[in-house]
Amino acid sequence: MAIEHLGYLVEQLNKFGDSKPVKISVGPILYYWPKQQVLDFYQQMLEAPVDIIYLGEAVCSKRHELRTDEWIELAAELNKSGKQVVLSTLALIEARSELSGLQKVCDNNDGLLVEANDMAAVQMLSEQKLPFVCGHSINIYNAHTLRILQQQGMQRWVMPVELNRETLGNILSDAGEMGFADQIETEVFSYGKLPLAYSARCFTARMRNLPKDDCRYSCIDYPDGVAMQTQEDEKLFTLNGIQTMSGSCYDLIPQVPEMVDMGVNVVRVSPQSDGTEKIIEQFREVIDSGKSETSLIARQHCNGYWFGQSGMDQVLDTAV
C-alpha cells in the first residue's frame, strides 16, 4: 500500500475496527442448481454466521428452476430471519423480457434492497429514489464514479474483482478526502470462482453442440461450472453458461485482517455446491480472532488480482 495512504487507513481502522465489525455476505448462486438444492442451501445460510444474503438470477434469464416471482417470494421469506437480504439482478440484459423481469425485481413490494449488476438497474432504482448496491460487474474504478453512484442512491459497492489492494486503497483514500467515505459500505469478493466476463453466446451449450436458444438447460448438469484446462492440464477457466469464470477459487481468507485495516465493511463468499458453510466459518474465525490463517494459502487457490498480479497466480504474502 502506498505510504501516503497509511494515515487514512489507520483512521479507517479506528473507525471500523470496534464499532463497525466486518460483515460476511453470501453472494447470489452463480450456477444453475435444481430448485430443491437452492431452497436447501438458503435454509443452511439462515443457520450460518452470515450477515447478508444475496439471491436471485444474476447470470442467465433462461434458468427457470426459480422464476422471478419465486426469487422475490423467497427473499421476502428469508428477510424475516433478521439477516439483511438483497435481490441481485442480471449482469447482462439482452431482451425486452429481461428488462421486464428487471423492473419486477426493482419494484418488489417488500422494500428489499437490490444489487444492481448493470446500469439499467441503476437507472431504474435511481429514478425511483430507491437505495441499492452496485455489484462487481459495475465498472467502478475511481472515487469520482463512486461519488456519482452514491449520489444516485448507492449504499454499498462491490469492488470489481480485477482490481488490486493498492487501487482499492487509493479509491477509499480519495473518497475520504472527498468527504463521502462514511456514507457507503465497501464489499470485496473474497472467496469463489471469479466471474470474469459475460457473453451473448452460451459456452456450455456450445460445448454440447447446441444452439443457445435450444440449450436444454445444460448448465444444470454442472453445479460448479465446466472446468477448462490447458494442454499441460493446468486450471485455466470455468465455463458457466454465458459466464467465464476463473479456473481456481479466489481465496482472500488470509487477507481479511488487511481488509479490516483498509476499512472494508463486507467480505463476500460466493456459493459452491459443497463446503460453503465451512468456508464461511473460516472467515468468521479470522474476523473474530483478528488473526490470519496463513496455512489456508496452501490450498490450490488463487489470489493474484489482490496483489496486482495475474489473477490465476497464488501469492504468499509474507507481510501477513
Output the number of helix runs. Answer: 10
Shape: globular
CATH class category name: Alpha Beta
Name the helix and strand elements from N-terminus to C-terminus, one letter apiece: HEHEHEHEHEHEHEHEEEHEH
Please name the CATH architecture.
Alpha-Beta Barrel
Average pLDDT for all residues: 91
Q: Stretches where pLDDT falls below 50 for ≥5 residues?
A: 1-19
Q: Do you know the CATH topology?
A: TIM Barrel
Widest sheet: strand order?
Answer: 1-2-3-4-5-6-7-11
Radius of gyration: 19 Å
Strand percent estimate: 15-25%
Largest sheet: 8 strands, parallel, barrel
CATH superfamily: Aldolase class I
Overall strand count? 11
Helix fraction bin: 25-40%
Helix/strand-derived class?
Answer: alpha/beta
Describe this structure in words.
With 320 residues, the chain is α/β, with parallel strands linked by helices. It has a single domain (3-192, 250-298), classed as TIM Barrel, CATH 3.20.20.70. Helices cover 32% and strands 19% of the residues. It is built from 10 helices and 11 strands. An 8-stranded parallel beta barrel has the order 1-2-3-4-5-6-7-11, surrounded by 4 helices. The chain is globular and about 50 Å long.
